[in-house]
Design a protein that fits this description.
With 169 residues, the protein is of the alpha+beta class. Helices cover 34% and strands 44% of the residues. The chain has six helices and seven strands, in the order βααββββββαααα.
């Protein structure tokens, strides 16, 4: 699976870069993270519980950071095992560029899954991966600039569920 995207983060590149290297921030931002510990030099150990389609598993794995260019770029490589659910491994190249509103964070991900997860099909896996990435960036934005996240949530019309949108009730 390959995926790439860019997200605008309302914080300067130095703040975003530091947050991506901090295990406490990662634990707060990665959806389903139970624990994240370690260091940039030695790598991180993580435990993440997620449900992908009908498969729910706790993945335990290692994450290493390399090609670190302070406040500009880093490469993340990781592998996690989820017991009978299977495994996931891959990497991401993350680039940070100053922008008018803070930082434009761009990423390119290449990942592989195996076991029961692979049997779900690429459409489910790709959709899940996109949803996880989007939630991570919402969480990162909230962590770095909570007032910006609140303003974004308050813009426009009141959020409605699909039933209310259809019926107007």
């Amino acid at each position: 699976m390959q995926m790439s995207d860019s997200k605008e983060i309302a914080a300067p590149p130095a703040e975003v870069y530091a947050a991506l290297l901090n295990p406490e921030v990662l634990k707060a931002c990665v959806p389903g993270a139970q624990e994240v510990n370690g260091s940039v030099e030695e790598g991180f150990e993580a435990s993440v519980t997620q449900k992908v389609g009908p498969v729910k598993a706790t993945f335990k794995g290692q994450v290493t950071l390399s090609d670190l260019i302070e406040n500009e770029k880093l490469t993340i490589t990781g592998e996690g095992k989820g017991g009978a659910a299977g495994f996931a491994k891959g990497g991401a190249v993350v680039s940070l560029t100053p922008s008018e509103t803070g930082t434009l964070l761009s990423y390119e991900v290449e990942a592989k899954v195996g076991g029961k997860l692979a049997q779900l099909g690429s459409r489910i896996i790709d959709g899940f991966a996109k949803k996880m990435a989007d939630q991570f960036f919402v969480n990162l934005q909230t962590h770095l600039a909570p007032e910006e996240a609140e303003e974004d949530a308050g813009e426009g019309e009141e959020k409605k569920g699909w039933f209310k949108k259809i019926t107007g009730n």
